[in-house]
Amino acid sequence: xxxxxxxxxxxxLALLIMVMFGFAFALVPLYDVFCRITGLNGKTASLPASTDxxxxxxxxxxxxxxxxxxxxxxxxxxxxxxxxxxxRPGEMTLVSYRVFNPTDRTMxxxxxxxxxxxxxxxYLKKVECFCFNRQELKAGESKxxxxxxxxxxxxxxxxxxxxxxxxxxxxxxxxxxxxLAQRK
Length: 184
Description:
About 20% of the residues lie in helices and about 35% in strands. The chain is of the alpha+beta class. It is flat, with a radius of gyration of 22 Å.
């Protein structure tokens, strides 16, 4: 009986495993880039939009709905002050969200936005948003957090309602990332 040399096969399998492992790590950043480019998955820009905007489209009205949700691990009360507004594309709009820290300690929160339908995310231009920065509240503190935005007039005609939803997360124990630390 002759012995078969399995060395080349084992090397190929080991290389395949390493490539698959590397690809799995690359999926998250690749997905984020894909979503940023296409506007899919309702991801919005994490930096302020330019205040230079197109002429207001007086022929269209878009309904913008606002939702607020605190994560189950976040004890803060987080609410939208306005449930719905009618806006014209290109028109600057200001709304607010209210947050209250009912705990007996200082905490830090971060709001993460999501837009529905997903393709509308590319047309929702946030000029000022509490989601750009971490929010620190002392025990018992409450504050209004502004959101200033406009809808790009290039929004496809078949989109008449946009829902902007924020989820608030407790990041008190998190260390600032270099990108967030530079924005402050």
